[in-house]
User: What shape does this take?
Amino acid sequence: MNAWSQTTLDHRTVLVTGAAGYIGSHTVTELLRQGCRVVALDNYCNSSPEVYRRIEGLAGTTFAHVEADVRDGAALEKVLSNHDIDACIHFAALKSVSDSIIHPLRYLDNNVRGLLVLLRVLQRYHVHRFVFSSSATVYGDPVRVPVAESAVLNATSVYGATKLMGEDILRRLAAAPAELEETWRVAALRYFNPVGAHPSGQIGEEPLGIPNNLMPYVMQVAAGLRPKLSIFGGDYPTPDGTCVRDYIHIQDLVEGHLAALKHLLDGGASLTVNLGTGRGTSVRQLVETFVQVNGVTVPYEFAARRPGDVAQYFADPSRARELLGWQARHDLADMCRDAWRWQCSQPQNHA
Ligand code: NAD
Ligand code: UFG
Assistant: This one.
């Protein structure tokens, strides 16, 4: 956890949008565990309120949750008028790169208009501490690795563009002259590849349908739910020919959020930081580690490259360490072990 901040989350109230989703559910659990009051908001377009029961079990406490869309200003007004909110962590967004290319307006409306509606209501209720889910996808195909925050920004998908637009809106807001001494303080967090699950095995990622992402697919093959993994491309200019990414344990990612939140509540300045480990892992290395630490088999075959994939990127995480005192602690073996524990904990997740 952030070694520098003296701020505790005790008696603070945080509005978490997209709280029932993968990253939201893990973050809410940790916020509650640290004594924070949480108001969770989600429209369940990619999740279910079922997860709240499990979060409450893990945290040993209850919290307020509201079914609402972030584009519904009236519903947000109601939430803000009923709760004395100190800060907002905004996860609610649509996140499929391929879907965003097919449905650009849907993504722009949900992710960009959703952000604007939320910000207007927060402004009206004098809530100016804001943590935003951005993504390493804003770097496009980076010229060099590790990727620092100063790298050229170049979103190649509509999804990536919505994250860039979100960052831009927030940067302008934070730069605006203080009105009634109420300056926006924003933390834009650029996630690399979050994987794994809560170590209890009680919450994790629950993709609907066929998983797009590597780790959920590997888990389903290992569980016998799918016959084999297709590795998209074995001829990339990387050490073993498969794509290299920076996989980060979900619990480390959550700690990054709490460090950023405490920084803002402490009166810290707005910032944009990478949340990654700084280590690159190839698709083959991930599969081999998963097989080794969990004692399972994951049959795979090489398939054509997936359009839009970048050969390799991993983070330069030094700015997050300097500004937040945060760094990732878990290694790839932890990520694979915790992911598999979650997969095995649910009967329907096994053949
Ligand atoms: P997720 O789909 O599991 O969670 C997002 C949640 O937001 C879901 O519960 C969904 O129902 C909700 N939601 C979506 N649109 C909404 C709306 N208009 N109103 C209310 N709720 C809405 O996704 P996640 O992996 O937890 O991602 C959380 C955030 O992190 C997203 O902003 C995503 O773009 C970003 N991100 C994710 C990754 C990743 O690999 N998981 C990487 C980089 C950035
Ligand atoms: N891959 C396979 N087979 C699969 C699935 C994935 O070989 O069945 C490969 C991909 O080709 C890629 C690597 O595994 O080389 C990682 O793919 P993911 O889909 O897991 O992750 P991406 O790096 O493509 O993208 C993810 C999120 C984006 C986000 C980005 C950076 O899906 O939304 O990380 O945070 F923007």
Remarks:
- The radius of gyration is 20 Å.
- DSSP finds eleven helices and 13 strands in the chain.
- Residues 41 and 273 are 25 Å apart (CA to CA).
- Residues 104-124 form the longest helix (21 residues).
